[in-house]
Amino acid sequence: MAEQNKTGEMQATLGLTGLTMNAMALIAPGAFLWLTFFIQGSTGQTAPAMWIGILLALLLCLATAVCYAELAKLYPGTGSSYYFAEQSFLNHDKHWRYARLSKFIVGWASHLYYWIYPGVMVAVTGIFCGYVVGTLWPNAMNAANPGTLFMMVVAVVFTFGVAYIAHRGVNGSTGVSIAINVIQISALLVFSVMAIG
After folding, report:
1. How much is the pLDDT for 132?
2. Helix or strand or coil: residue 69?
3. CA 81/CA 94 separation, integer angstroms
């Protein structure tokens, strides 16, 4: 009975496969940007700049990963960027009074990001669904301007769908991530075969 009442401890529920699938589901939507590279690369002016941009983005991601790895090694503990901001000021005698302020600013910036990003994602989903419906059924609506009401309905339905997935917990969201990965990888393979053909 005492073992069942351990509610304060975190339980490891995902293995390497689950973690990989969740990470791929977050990263893989950007893979569809590769489909636009033919259009960008076909013009003579943007092709060289495109590869420099990819290289700079890759270097920025690598630098961020190295920084977070070093900070996690230097300041082990729970938290993220706000925790690292506080710890960096606490280790200096002259600047320790700015520790809470830096933690507050970085924490709220991260918090606002996690509010703004889902809003942008829901809005883009509404626009994308309007484009697809307008393209498949041009008599029903205009693909370029599907209408505010249609996009709002899609955004609300999409929001409740995401909330339901979150309600199912880590294992439920991992199942959705696996399905998303299968769809995305299959689509990328089909598009690759079409491009090669």
Report:
1. 87
2. helix
3. 21
